[in-house]
Specification:
Blueprint (H helix, E strand, L loop, with lengths): L1 H18 L25 H7 L10 H13 L11 H16 L15 E6 L4 E6 L2 E8 L12 E4 L2 E7 L6 E9 L2 E5 L14 E3 L1 H10 L5 E5 L6
Parallel strand pairs: 1-9, 7-8
Antiparallel strand pairs: 1-2, 2-3, 4-9, 5-6, 6-7
Amino acid sequence: MGDIRRRRTVALGITGALVAPLALTLTAAPAQAAAACTTQAGPYQKQVEKFLGRPVDGKQSTTDCKAVRAFQTKHGISPNAGYAGPVTWGVMDLMNKQKAVGKNPGKDGKCPVNKGRIACLNLTLQLTWIQDGKKLVYGPVPTRTGRDGYETRTGLKKIYWRNIDHVSSIYNVPMPYAQFFDGGQAFHQADLSMWNPPGSHGCANLTKTDAKKYWSLLRNGDDVYVYGRKPGT
């Protein structure tokens, strides 16, 4: 009887492990209705004007508003009314910080260089890359990780399951090129802006190009190191 119970427990454990990756993904940002263009200057008006290459005078013009609204619409920032608020500036500021990293994403020394091939994921900068020792293999590229309450978990992981045509069993949405590294958390393609706030449901979203490249470079058993903290979580 004890042997039967043990066999049942093992079977249930295996079943749970196989089902777990099906659970977590990301829903695409809902379509936004056209918002009236605001005439009000936002608290980050000058910073936003500078980012967009507009005259930096801190005053909202019709052209300023159209430029800000186009940026908001492109990246799924709602409401997309052209107001230079903290969410809009937060996305732009993150883009500036990502650009400043250049081709040296591991300069902070946080991602291990003694693991051979490893996928690194910096939550603070929302950047990911693949390195082999100290050699940069691919990236860095922007990623969209877990929002507040659905944070992408930090630490050293391993890719343990891959499914090129995965579909989430919870959200019933496609997760192409899915590579799971922590329960239901995975690298996978997402068809929306990588800067779309507030973030995913825990996965590390990638563009189609980057998701395909990660699929070609990584294998089961490869290490993944996640560190930092996503802004707003």
